Amino acid sequence: MTLTFIWTTVGALLTLCVYSFLYKDNPFYKFAEHLVVGVSAGYYLVIYYFNFIDPNVVRPVFQLELGGEAVAFGGTEWWMALIPGLLGLLLYTRFFPKIAWVGRWPLGIYVGGYAGLGISPVMQARVIDQMQAASSPLAGVPDPFAAATNAALGFAIFVVLTYFLLVKRHIVARGIAMSIGAVVLSAVAGYGGYVVLSALSAQGVVSMTNILLVVGLLGTLAYFFFSMRHAGLLGGLARIGIIFLMVGFGASFGYTVMSRISLLIGRVSFLLTDWLHLI
Amino acid sequence: MMRASLAVLSVLIVALSCGWASAQDDPVPIETGLAPPDTIPDILPPAPATDLTAVDLVDNDDAGDKIELTWTLSPDDAGGMRDVTGYYLWRSESPDARGDTLALVVAGTSSFVDDTAVPGVPYYYAVTATDGTSLSGEAAFGPVSGRRDWFTVSRLAVLVLAAIFFALVLAFTRLAEKGAELFVRRIPGLNAIEEAVGRATEMGRPVLYVPGIGEIDNIMTIASLTILSHVAKITARYETPLIVPTARAVVMSAAEEVVKEAYAEAGKPDAYNPDNIRYLSDAQFAFAGAVNGIMLRERPAANLYLGAFWAESLLLAETGFEAGAIQVAGTAMVSQLPFFVTACDYTLLGEELYAASAYLSREPKLLGGLKGSDWMKIITIGLIVVGIIMNLAGADAFVEWFHTN
Amino acid sequence: MRRRVPLTLCFIAGLFMAVQYFIPHHNVAAAYERLLLWLQTLLAFAFLLGTVSLIRVHYHKVRDRAPDRGFSIVMFVGLFLMIGLGFFHPSHHAPGSPFNRMFLYVQVPIEATMFSLLAFYIASAAFRAFRARTLEATLLLVAAAIVMLGRVPIGDMISARIPEATRWILEVPNLAAKRGIMIGVGLGMMATALKIMLGIERAWMGGGD
Amino acid sequence: MASVTEFFEKFLRIDRRWIFLAIAIAVVVPFFLPLGLPVVVTPPVQRLYDAVEELELGGPPLLLSIDYTPATSPELEPMSTAILRHVFRQDARVIVMTLHPAGYGMAESAILAAAEEEGAEYGEDFCFLGFQPGTSAVILGLGVNISNVFPEDAYGTPLTEIPMMEGIRNYDDIPLLISLAGWSASEAWVYYAHQPYGQRVGGGVTAVMATDLYPYLDSGQLVGLLGGMRGAAEYEELIGQHGSGVRGMDSQSVIHLIIIILIILGNLAYFMTRRQRKLAGEGT
Predict the structure, then answer these.
(1) Which residue is closest to A12 within chain C, CA to CA?
(2) Do B373 and B277 fall into the same domain?
(3) Is B29 contained in some domain?
(4) pTM of structure
């Protein structure tokens, strides 16, 4: 109990050292910063050694026993563990300028191997499967009414924004009149879209979402297309792409705020609950 | 004109969605009649399973010892008499005998993997349904033999697309090496960078260029150094001070080389000030704090953030905004883009950073990758559009062909 | 010797790893399994390189009597304390050991707190830097505000439409944009991998001959 | 009018440490005065919960990869706690491992706490394989044979001597895999476990990364997704035991509201002062 309290106090004081940075950079913060660099490096070293190097290199090479019997690890013969071990040691020649070039040999295997490993899974996960998902219809929508309003509203906003982006670049410059116009227009378009959609089946809503998804994807791809000037159809698509990109970044922004606040809540909870037992 | 095309567009969309909706209507399964209650004494053997097929299974570690059996369930399994309790699977090396029992699987199962096959030996398989007391007639299939395969056919699509893509990249790289004019559109962000530098010159204040905190082998850092060279040439011409803070020692020496060379090329080697290329700290927050210090003390009029940034992006862009500098940013770290977009005057989004560096350097390896990716995007768009049309037409074979695993 | 051998090794390792994906043959799979273990071993050794570099940097600071060498000593104390506790303490790294507690009560609080500092900066940036200056920035801010409200319970209380709008933003425009980025970045990753294998991109070798 | 502008200009130049103070107060107060706001469950979380629910009593285990580091633990630790509680409560089994060296300590403390609470037994209900370096090489290696990658568990016991590992060879014997990470580990699991081996993968990530993973959710490459502390809170709601996730939602609500107000005030002040400057003809 008391031992845990002492450790918790250490953690709490270090937490406060880091927060002192909010006032300004100071020795307490620097102390914590350097301490954690050392502690984490030491921690990683120990974990790497006991979890990997010891069972996969040291023990097979020196034929040390595993659980009572001299087992070849994963069928590893001692020399099969020795070769990568030696190659790994060659990496350290970089600290000796004269023979530093030898260190490129294992590095070559390492860099090349990892490059080769990635190619096909990345092609499959990021390109082919995404392409396939983009051209397949969505699964059923649970609440057609909510989906209808959302899709209609989204579509209306999309149409209005496209209009302003394509025809009138500077929405802010036109002042309040234009903003009111935009609101009225989107409300009218939203209601219109809603009426059209409710006339359709729930599947129509799904299709509308699908079309938005496809248009957004094509727009984004068009935005990142560099071999032609952005004019005409390509220019229009790229403008649409920018809208989607910005809404996407907005979503990331909102989520990122959430993320950082969560970390703060976690630390405050540590200070108030785990350390001071106030709550 | 605009309105007319919008109207056409909306009509098209509605038409398309109706088409899509009808394409999506799933066939409704027809409810079959229920079987009579199981009160009649069971003397009849169940109806047999049918359509047994056996194929050599190809998995990731193909030792040729796996053969996959599939069959159609007996009509008495979940239908008819509903008295099937399981299926016996048989394996023989001759077509005449039923051979040994391979396995007994429970009712409702319609596939089984025999993983005890000897590679190259032809086998004959049979399946019989059982109700616990009697066996049905058999469905047989054979001969089939296991093989150690040299190609996973289901991954053909990956191979084909990767091959096309790589051919494009290599072809464009070769073209660029031969000096062909490959068109890359000018990135608007470059104009913004030049304007920002011009503004700093007018005001007689320095330009701050942060190449990110990535290591030297990070492609974003490499792209950033290309753009740095371009910026350095402009600042050399106007003799505007250029401050380059770095977070990695190696990046600092690379930046020194780049800037020195650019000043020499612009004919102003004397204007180069080595004290302005600085290594601040490897630690993320310490680095951000030190750069913020530079912004507040030396008051640069233009802040350029191009390269790999993590959480420090926010700290930098906020202070720069507050200090009233013109800010241009560019990174391929998608998670940091929102902060740059809101707090900077112009932001190069993702791939635009690479495109800008390829545009400026005209280096074949950069151009090749960029053009190859561009054309692959066109192919992707084409495939998506064709996929959608095929889907609307009710033919999913095209999309299915890309289904791997 | 100095450039050709590593480039050749890089090409062979890369080609084998890329091609084995399509070859299910048992013998190839066995070789692949072996090479995976080799890559892991190399990675482990490469990781520990970082520790050696760290020691060198701080050793030089102490030796050269740099003004803030005191902090370098703090770093060394942390490092060697962990190594000592990890290798020589009787209970090694069992749960509840001093090694383990150093992790939970020194490393965890400092690292977690450093990132939580950003919560404060994001709030101040929201006030001082996030301006609806362009249409793009406006769109971003509006979407962000909706998502921020829609992902916390208070959004539900204001209006049930807010979480729905959030879901729509995430599943339609966000999805479309992120998918586009995903495809573009994926192609970039593959092109880089190809260039590394073929020795067109060789920044990993560093300078010199 | 001028005085209003002056006020806004002063307001814009306020020392940011006042804002820091406001945030600090806003996060602390809800701890003492909880609002008890309800948490509504969203589909990506429900889908992950359902996938865990499908695990059978004493059947093939869940593979839980605890890949987060201390820096993101407040967001992700509530997830691992909730998932482990859920698994143990339905008497299913779980194999825990990590792809990050710092994940070792995080995983160990999470699993020991949950196991003690729910009375799960080491070797029967759960086991901890520890850490292996190499991310993609590790994930691919597990698809061939788990004991090649982890010849022994974290405490040096060979896998062959752990009862629950009997008959567990590779992904074929693992119905579900969940990765909890604050870095690209979740994507690596999609690339290297789902694509080549067809493994079902679920994820729990920081809110920063969550939006980028939606395409995988839509295409089915991810079974379900927990995004940030809110994701953890929803999972806690589903298992009916509130933890730090749900508790954090009150503070989270208040601060989000404050930040939105700050954005609005900042923009208002900005536009007011800008208009004033424009009228005075000072700038553009």
Answers:
(1) C109
(2) no
(3) no
(4) 0.84
